[in-house]
């Protein structure tokens, strides 16, 4: 049969979709009894904000390698055991390096017009020797050669130009409206929120900054100041300091701030309004002298190993009980707030979701068919280190990008899917499918009971930057939920205001309820969730198992 050219794509599409539609004609079942119980317990008897208060108010912040995180992990494991979950355990990974804690910090301009500076040291910054007094040097307007010739050993240098501010003409929190959700369903990425960043060529700024840092590598100042690329009105976004590396050190050989023995000059981020004021005073030729106290502790003892926390709600179906459904979130955080929206919220929601499922099983006298495993990862802020280590140890080792895994382990076959939460305190509005269109009709049915709770949207798009990628990377269904951007990139994400008070209780209750339902249905369905990309045969062949 000769076919006209325009007919081919249509035919192809039909052939492609045929099995899908065949597969998805039977509407995916929804366990209404489970959904009803989860809604009642999750929305009327929620404990999520109590979990969050322990995670943040008692154990926050939870920087990877810090005693706080270790204590929080002990608490979480103990709580899982109290709830009657099985197999609660630590999974060790690493060595990571050295932990760190900020013990004491203050900074003032001194002289005939003294004033308090609002600032935070970056994580892993070294201590200063007692209270130091030093003049500020505007390194950003001195060429690198001249800078290298100056004696900076008793100076404090400013790294960047002042940053122009734009006022907020819209709020910091936002809920996706119907139009935005429709656009997302069509794959349109949502724009970053908040005032437009000051113009100027960031690349030139970055190169200049690198030149200054190189000049300082051999000419160590007392401390280095910056003002962050965003943040104002008392909100400072602060993460890790950088270790000093000789210029030209290859990227994969560069010491990180937590690398044992790394030299980490004290690095301090100032409130932009205070940073800009100092710049303007220096521009007028008025010297600025500051007094700084910075005491930090670096935890060099032990083997540098870190750990994840895991626990199970065992499955009982003879055929399926060794298969797994996982839910997780990272437990580590940055250090200037208490790690509430990043990612105490995700951790508290996942703890609450498995508490809800255990409560349902106990009250209905049922148990899941597949085993449900909750995971609280560490090292996420340093590169998804904990989740990637667990996947490599138990599931599969990633191959080249887009290629089948280099090695697969038993759990690769057993794992049906992994659900993650790590986009702040916002309620679940839907799911990113990571390109996996075969789960679309399934998730669409599972979302229907929660449309009344604003969870409606399925998008084929993928999203990144968090732990579901550890699973996605080895060809397994790993999903991050779509969440309302509640003052996340604009206020709390990696900032000093990342605290319990900026978590929204109703949103977290809704999220735990929706996620518990997704996990339950994944544990109860006959088939594992369909996969994209790598089929089992190819993966086994690639990993030499066949
Ligand atoms: Zn996070």
Secondary-structure topology with pairs:
Layout: H1 7-24, H2 32-44, H3 48-58, H4 67-82, E1 86-93, E2 99-110, E3 115-116, E4 119-121, E5 132-137, H5 144-149, E6 155-158, H6 178-185, H7 202-217, E7 223-226, E8 267-270, H8 272-283, E9 289-299, E10 306-313, E11 324-330, H9 340-364, E12 371-377, H10 385-394, E13 396-397, E14 407-408, H11 410-414, E15 415-420, E16 428-432, H12 440-447, E17 457-459, H13 468-472, E18 478-483, H14 488-492, H15 505-524, H16 536-542
Parallel strand pairs: 5-6, 6-7, 7-8, 11-12, 11-15, 15-18, 16-17
Antiparallel strand pairs: 1-10, 2-3, 2-9, 4-8, 5-9, 10-12, 13-14, 16-18
Helix pairs in contact: 2-9, 2-15, 3-9, 9-15
Bound molecules: zinc ion (ZN).
Zinc ion binds at residues 330, 342-343, 380, 422, 466.
What does this structure look like?
- The chain is of the alpha/beta class.
- The protein folds into two domains: 14-97 and 303-542, Zn peptidases (Aminopeptidase, 3-Layer(aba) Sandwich); 99-177 and 197-299, Glucose Oxidase, domain 1, CATH 3.50.30.30.
- It is built from 16 helices and 18 strands.
- The strands form three sheets. The protein has an eight-stranded mixed sheet, with helices on both faces. The protein has an eight-stranded mixed sheet with strand order 3-2-9-5-6-7-8-4.
- Helix 5 (144-149) links the parallel strand 5 and strand 6 (155-158).
- Helix 2 packs across helix 9 (340-364) and helix 3 (48-58) packs antiparallel against helix 9 (340-364).
- The chain is elongated.
- It starts with 6 loop residues before the first helix and ends with a helix.
- Mean pLDDT is 91; it is low at 1-24.
């Amino acid at each position: 049969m000769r076919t006209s050219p325009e007919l081919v794509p249509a035919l192809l599409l039909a052939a492609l979709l045929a099995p899908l539609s065949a597969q998805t004609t039977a509407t995916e079942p929804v366990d209404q009894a489970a959904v009803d119980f989860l809604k009642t317990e999750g929305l009327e008897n929620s404990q999520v904000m109590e979990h969050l208060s322990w995670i943040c108010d008692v154990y926050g912040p939870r920087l990877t390698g810090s005693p706080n995180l270790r204590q929080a992990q002990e608490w979480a494991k103990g709580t899982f055991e109290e709830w009657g979950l099985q197999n609660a355990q630590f999974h060790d990974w690493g060595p990571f390096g050295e932990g760190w804690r900020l013990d004491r910090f203050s900074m003032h301009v001194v002289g005939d017009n003294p004033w308090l500076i609002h600032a935070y040291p970056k994580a892993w910054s070294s201590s200063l020797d007692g209270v130091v007094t030093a003049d500020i040097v505007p390194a950003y307007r001195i060429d690198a050669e001249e800078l290298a010739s100056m004696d900076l050993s008793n100076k404090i240098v400013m790294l960047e130009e002042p940053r122009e501010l734009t006022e907020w003409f819209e709020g910091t929190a936002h809920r996706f409206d119907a139009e935005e959700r429709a656009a997302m369903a069509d794959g349109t990425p949502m724009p970053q929120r908040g005032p437009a960043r000051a113009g100027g060529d960031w690349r030139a700024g970055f190169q200049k900054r690198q030149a200054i840092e190189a000049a300082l590598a051999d000419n160590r100042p007392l401390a280095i100041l910056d003002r962050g690329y965003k943040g104002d009105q008392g909100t400072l976004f602060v993460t890790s300091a950088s270790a000093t590396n000789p210029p030209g050190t290859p990227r994969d050989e560069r010491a990180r701030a937590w690398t044992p023995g790394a030299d980490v000059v004290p690095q301090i981020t100032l409130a932009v309004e205070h940073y800009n004021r100092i710049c303007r005073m220096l521009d007028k030729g008025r010297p600025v002298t500051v007094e700084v106290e910075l005491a930090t502790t670096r935890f060099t003892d032990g083997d540098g190993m870190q750990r994840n926390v895991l626990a199970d709600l065992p499955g009982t179906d003879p055929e399926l009980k060794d298969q797994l459904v996982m839910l997780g979130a990272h437990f580590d955080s940055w250090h200037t707030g208490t790690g509430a929206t990043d990612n105490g919220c995700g951790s508290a929601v996942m703890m609450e979701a498995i508490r809800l499922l255990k409560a349902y099983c106990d009250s209905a006298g049922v148990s899941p068919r597949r085993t449900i495993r909750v995971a609280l990862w560490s090292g996420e802020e340093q590169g998804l280190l904990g989740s990637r280590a667990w996947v490599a140890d138990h599931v599969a080792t990633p191959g080249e990008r887009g290629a089948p895994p280099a090695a697969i382990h038993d759990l690769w076959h057993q794992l049906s899917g992994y659900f993650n939460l790590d986009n702040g305190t916002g309620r679940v509005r839907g799911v990113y499918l990571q390109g996996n269109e075969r789960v679309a009709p399934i998730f669409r049915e599972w979302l229907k009971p929660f449309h009344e709770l604003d969870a409606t949207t399925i998008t084929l798009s993928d999203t990144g930057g968090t732990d579901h990628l550890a699973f996605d990377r080895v060809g397994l269904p790993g999903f991050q939920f779509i969440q309302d951007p509640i003052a996340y990139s604009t206020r709390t994400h990696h900032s000093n205001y990342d605290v319990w008070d900026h978590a929204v209780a109703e949103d977290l209750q809704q999220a735990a309820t929706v996620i518990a339902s997704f996990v339950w249905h994944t544990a109860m369905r006959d088939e594992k969730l369909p996969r994209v990309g790598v089929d089992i045969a190819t993966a086994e062949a690639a990993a030499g198992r066949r």
